[in-house]
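A student in our group prepared the protein record below, which I am reviewing. Thanks in advance; the entry in question is below.
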Amino acid sequence: MITAAEYGDTSWELSVHVDQKDGDESMRFKLRVKGDLHVGGLMLKLVEKIKAPQDWSDHALWWEQRKCWLLKTHWTLDKYGIQADADLRYTPQHKPLLLQLPNMKTIKIIVSLSCVVFKVVMDICQTLNIRRPEELSLLKPPDDPSKKKKKKDKNSAQDIWDIDLPGGPGAYSKTMTATYDPENGMPVSATSLWFGENPLAGCLPNLPPAELAKIYQPLSLVDKAINNAGWLDSSRSLMEQDIQDEDKLLLRFKYNVFFDLNPKYDAVRITQLYEQARWSILLEEIDCTEEEMLMFASLQYHICKLTMSSEPLDHSNEPEIDEVEAALSNLEVTLEGGNTDRILEDITDIPELADSLRLFRPKRLTLRPYKEYWFVFKDTTISYFKNKETASGEPIEQFHLRGCEVVPDVNVTDKKFGIKLLLPVADGMNEVYIRCDNETQYAKWKAACILASKGKTMAYSSYKSEVRNIQSFLQMKSLAPPPGQAAPNLDSMEMNAECFVSPRYAKKHKNKQLTARILEAHQNIARLSLMEAKMRFIQAWQSLPEFGINYYIVRFKGSKKDEILGISYNRLIRLDMSSGLPVTTWRFANMKQWNVNWEIRQVTIEFDQNVTIAFCCLSCDCKVVHEFIGGYIFLSTRSKDQNETLDDELFHKLTGGQE
């Protein structure tokens, strides 16, 4: 027994709660310590006092009141500010978590509750074989789970998808995560999870309409804003954000820029991306027209049909672009004097478009909504004239497209090919509608508008591929069967057509009518392979006007009303809360700097031309919006260099808080 005199007056008693790893009852110990004792020494004292023969290497100290891990073992208790009233827990850092994947299935996986979320997501993606983990993050479910906890406990075992994951539900192991070859991105360890038999690379059958109707809830902009508030802070650990073991989180693609999608290496990534896109269409988390809904339905039907066929998944036949071969071929053609798709064929020869199109200006009172003019597209500017003969003179008006919004206004069945331009002006956005005569004309003009909105001309090599993408998208939307092909047999569809559309849309049409329309649309894509169909679905999803916009309720400085702020990969959009229409758009390309006043939780952003905006977030913490802006800027710095490792230091510098 050590006397008080030996300790002096500086020692005090510290209570530590010890969690057992194997489900045994927890224990509480009281240790006599001094303020100059370091955390490592405290843990050593504790283990000696416990006298239990087990591996304590994964245990660490958690400070309940401050909600922080004591991971700097060389720090003293005084440096941390720990005193006699501190409530410490000695608990395992790695614990099981229920993780709902983008395909809506839940798995149990061991994760670190002490690492920052960014690192946790990287580890999860390594285990699941999903490349580019920086595009994903963890989201809290929108509903409060505590209300239904008792009911859920009974059925929790049935809801969990039992798949054999390395380092999964069995035991934590640092050596069982996938290791990637830096040269080609392939996993080094050859296990069944990573090659051929990975259940995450296969698509799941669509839910019956009755089950889908139970999940479906109509979402307003405000609802979407509330759901988006649940993104976890990437710079803090799970336990610091009140996430405990066995809690349920959603793994989702957060940043909508999918870099370097390669069918050879990305079977799981593409499938999970397709599943996230599919559910966003079925649950109407993103708006689409009736024609687009049928196109998505036909692609889902095609993917289901191929998945249910007896053929095993084989990705070896998927087309793969060998960059070295492509470069050599390009060089060979150039040396022979042929033509290739170089970035700029001739720096002085920037292509132009000139066509007779129709124009409509909603803000101008006119009896005839659309009027025909002669349009000329040069550089990033559209000019229009009374007719072709007057094109050499002064135009009636010019539209400068840099920074504008390009929205499709199309109905292939009704032969309506329109482009809606939202042009930025000082006090908001000007609306202009341009109507084309046919698909080819529409594809060329829309592709030129998209490039011009980014400040690029038609001389860029991406112009031709953009035109081709728009044409293939229009072809998929066409409900007319290809020439010379008979009408589809309704009995050939063995699945319920209502599984492939949203419940609201299914109520509008009879099942037989829906089946006929899906089969008609399916004839245009019937020859696609499984991977091609998934890629087409993702591309079509990306081309929707609302794609990739996360909404938040904010109050702008100087304003007296709440508004909606939309954050996309390249811009911020200010929307009217009642109408949902855009008021102003600000591009990240024009942003000089942004900062956060953490005391009053206000985000301030400075743009070119002395434009400054400031707002407070009402539907979430301002850190969520700050992280989205910094995250998108971080992702824009990526290059195709396969040897490049992820610069997580730069990510935290751009997204981390100053608290």
About this structure: Confidence is low (pLDDT under 50) at residues 145-158, 166-196, 312-321, 336-347. The longest helix spans residues 290-308. The CA atoms of residues 29 and 50 lie 8 Å apart. The chain has 17 helices and 23 strands.
